[in-house]
Every structure is written in structure tokens, then in C-alpha cells.
Amino acid sequence: MxxxxxxxxxxxxFREDDWKDLFEYLSQEAVVQYEPYGVFSEEDxxxxxxxxxxxxxxxxxxxxxxHKLIGNxxxxxxxxxxxxxxxxxxxxxxxxWGQGYAHEACNRMxxxxxEQMGAHRVMAxxxxxxxxxxxxxxxxxxxxxxxxxxxxxxxxxxxGKPIWHDAYQYSILDExxxxxxxxxx
Length: 185
Ligand SMILES: CC(C)(COP(=O)(O)OP(=O)(O)OC[C@H]1O[C@@H](n2cnc3c(N)ncnc32)[C@H](O)[C@@H]1OP(=O)(O)O)[C@@H](O)C(=O)NCCC(=O)NCCS
What we know:
Elements: E1 4-5, E2 9-13, H1 19-26, H2 29-32, H3 42-53, E3 58-63, E4 69-77, E5 85-92, H4 101-115, E6 121-126, H5 131-139, E7 143-156, E8 162-173, H6 174-184
Parallel strand pairs: 5-6
Antiparallel strand pairs: 1-2, 2-3, 3-4, 4-5, 6-8, 7-8
This protein binds coenzyme A (COA).
Coenzyme A binds at residues 31, 34, 90-92, 97-103, 126, 130, 132-133, 136, 139.
């Protein structure tokens, strides 16, 4: 089983007993605001931890010093598989925003993608209103490749109408990542 490490973090598969830390952040309105789901209950999180423990796309991000699970990455290969493109997602507990943890975890995952998994391209999407998300992508040297006009909705109005939202798409290519790594070594 793959475990990724950085100076401050361990990035590992989910376990069933992660539900409490999962509940701590998936119950926060600010965390789920731009996600395709609402806040989770304790019971939802017990089930979610079991489900994530069986799903290789979800990675738990934990601090090395106290083993606290502070957020998660989502990392999944897209179809068609020969195009070697993975989608990256990230959701962190508000108590750990603004400390560079999400950047550290995502950057490690990009290194894993390009250097171990043979990825050609890693992409991510977000609502343009989610400034924290696209600023993170730009800190990761991902480049905005598109602004899509209302391609999707996650929520509906009280009378059942879709609330369509725009989406930015960002990506980074293997040669771009290698060039940045080359500068840092
Ligand atoms: C998107 C999200 C993960 C970004 O988290 P974040 O903490 O802002 O991102 P980073 O880890 O890159 O941290 C950067 C901040 O930490 C600061 N920082 C402090 N110490 C740092 C360090 N050692 N290294 C790097 N940055 C550091 C930076 O200056 C920056 O601060 P700023 O935002 O005031 O400019 C977070 O807002 C989140 O979980 N949102 C809810 C879920 C969500 O919307 N996900 C995306 C769906 S598309």
C-alpha cells in the first residue's frame, strides 16, 4: 500500500476509524460550500469512512506530529485511460487552512503522479467563486485551460430548479512539472 510523506504530512489510504476526523470537517458549512454534497452527519461519516477505506481515489492527509487527519485528496484517473490524465481534488478542515498543508499534500501527489504513476496530465476543476481553490492550483503551477459556462449544478433552489455554476479547469503537464522540479533541485 502506497504511503506518501512530506516534511509535515503523511498521506495514506482511509481507515474505518477515520470517521471522527472526517465528521469534524465534513460537518462544516464552509468546507462543503462548493462540493456536490451538503454537510454530513455523524452517521454519514461512519459510512463514508468505510466507503473511502475501499476507494483508492480518496487519500487521508494527516499531520506527522500528532497523526491528526486534517483533510483529504481525491485523485482519480480519467477516461480514456491511454490519455494518462488524472483529476485532483482537495478538501481540508477549516482549522488547518492558511498553513500551506493543502499545497504540501497536493504537490506531493503531483510528484507521485508524474514520477511514479506515469501521468501525462493532472487536471482540477472549481467554481470561479471558490478563490481559495483556484489560488491553490496556481500556487501548484497549474494553468487555467478553460472557463466553462454553467456546465453543471450541485444544488437546487427550494422550488427544485438547478443552480447552474461556471467552472474553471486547470492542468499541469509532465514536462512542466519536471521543469519546476529541476529548478528546485
Ligand atoms: C481549497 C483549500 C484546500 C485551500 O486551502 P489553503 O489552506 O488556502 O491552501 P494552502 O495549503 O495552499 O495554504 C495557503 C495559505 O497558507 C499560507 N501559509 C502559511 N504557512 C505556509 C507554509 N509553511 N507553506 C505554504 N503556505 C503557507 C499561505 O501564505 C497561504 O495564505 P493565504 O491564503 O492567506 O494567501 C481549502 O480552502 C478548502 O479545503 N476549501 C473547502 C473545500 C473546497 O472547496 N475544495 C475545492 C473544491 S474545487
